[in-house]
Automatic annotation (TrEMBL):
Keyword Acyltransferase: no
Limits of the PNPLA domain: 6-218
Organism: Streptomyces dioscori
Taxonomy, superkingdom: Bacteria
Protein name (record): Patatin
Swiss-Prot/TrEMBL keywords: Hydrolase, Lipid degradation, Lipid metabolism
KW Lipid metabolism (keyword) present: yes
Motif annotated as GXSXG, chain positions: 37-41
GO molecular function terms attached to this record: hydrolase activity
InterPro entries the UniProt entry points to: Acyl_Trfase/lysoPLipase, Lipid_Hydrolase, PNPLA_dom
Record GO biological process: lipid catabolic process
Active site: S39 (nucleophile), D205 (proton acceptor)
Amino acid sequence: MSDADLVLEGGGVRGLGTAGAVIRLLEEGYTFQRVAGTSVGAVAAAFVAAGMGAEELREVMEDLELSLIPDRERLGPRPMPGVPMLSEGVSLLRRHGAYQGAWIHDWIRTVLARKKVTTFADLRREDSGDSAGLTDDQKYKLVVMATDVTRGRLLRLPWDYHLYGLKAEEQSVADAVRMSLSIPFYFQPRALTHGGTGQDSVIVDGGVLSNFPVEVFDRTDGEKSRWRTIGVRILPDLPAGMAQLFSLPALKLFPLLHLLQQVVTTAVVGNDQSHLDRPGVRERTIAVDLPALGVTDFGLDLAQRQEAVQRGWHAADAYVKRCPTDPD
């Protein structure tokens, strides 16, 4: 086996490619000491941090019912289903997101519970060889990225819970991942309440500020890294592929929101691109090519899903052949 850290980019349905890549790396014998992710990358990261192996991850992803993820909010006091377009429009105006995000939240919680992971206390790690500068709040197997639009800052959870008067070990892993999944205008944002003041912060997708935080585990004490960091990227460089990345018909009802969505999409893809061009970054990155697959294409059929997973598997296989695991 070979130790490594793993960082997974956000990208909605394109995360099927992430799953395929991670499955191949696990098959190769990698043991991931720490895992970080944004948005859908945070989902896969949480599952890997919880101890899933290749076959278990494959089974979980095959069982995921993509069509249930865009969960329309019910209209009116009676239990009637949401109405297409109308429900999304009302939710955008009332709750700043077309879909609730409740179904995917419950699914993540259920899957993690099967691995006996509920709070970050279940993902605690102690390693005397870690960077000397790590705080107690940074000694966890998992880090997920989210964006606090109230305070205007990137959140690295569980590292930053202390800023809100909260104990990291007591916080729900599924809640943190759901915060990271809050694609602006698509899923309703989440609230993070300060434990002391009671003030709420509005939290959206981590990709707004850091969609591919491949440097998050780099040592800061000047010592040589004990193992490599492997990143998995699923979005194309700008300007390629921008048109198919994000599609929400209801936004066309609100021209201003549609413009803002385009700004956000550009930020999600472009914010990390300058970092990717720094020396050595792309060399530790597996880029999964997923042409014509949009972030919100939740209507994929079985063959399309399998193709996306296979593309990720083959991208990681090429990396494994180029960069074999370290000798034991």
